[in-house]
Specification:
2 domains; nine-stranded mixed beta sheet; C-type lectin domain-containing protein; Mannose-Binding Protein A, Chain A; Hepatocyte Growth Factor; alpha+beta; binds calcium ion; five-stranded antiparallel beta sheet; 249 residues
Amino acid sequence: MARPGAVLLLLLATASAAGRYRRLHPVSLHGPAVKTFSATSAVSCGLRCEAHTPQQCSGFIYAPDDGTCRLFSGDCRGPAVVSSQQTTEHYMARSVPSEPAVGRCGCPAGFHRCAGRCLRQLDLAVNHTTAESQCAALGAHLAVPRSDEENQCAAAAAATAGTKAVWTGLIELPAMEGVYTGADGCGAVPVQGRWASLQPDDGGPGVAEDRVLIMSTGTVHAAGWHDNPAGARWQPLCQLALGYRPGCP
Ligand SMILES: [Ca+2]
């Protein structure tokens, strides 16, 4: 159940805390908490988070029953996929202030808002490693569509790409065939229902296809997700790591 009282307390606690947290539910968190403390209230737990950079603490869970305050370094949309993830309704996500000129639902220059994310499709088709570095140079990572809405955003980007396809930040784990982890740091990505016809096919003997692109309609290939080798060249679709705004179109 939501605890609006905790939100209110946070808003009243300090000027710096005001508006800095929002409740996300449900949200899946990848891996263990990065830090665990004892705290007397959600306010003091939130202030412990505030003492870190947004990259170090993206939000927290406070358990009033035993006073446990857990800080996390990444929050993710959608349901948990593997057992190392947890789905919680008690996560307080930190908001990262927008530049005043950008506004709440805006994105930095070059990026556009879609399903709450800031996305930017780059013009040149490059291999996956170069695509990753080009996004990183923009303070972003390759896009990781987790929800249906985010997948539609990525498919729309692919439709406007010259190659009719975009690289995503999904990589198949070497030791776990069929499990794909995301460049957003949120762990395994839901893949069911996303694949194009006859995909993933791993490219046949001697070919490692462990990267994922999204193909639009209008090519000889089936629309949807395809696995490809890292050396294939597609246009990168970048996503700002800290730009998620729930409620923004
Ligand atoms: Ca394939």
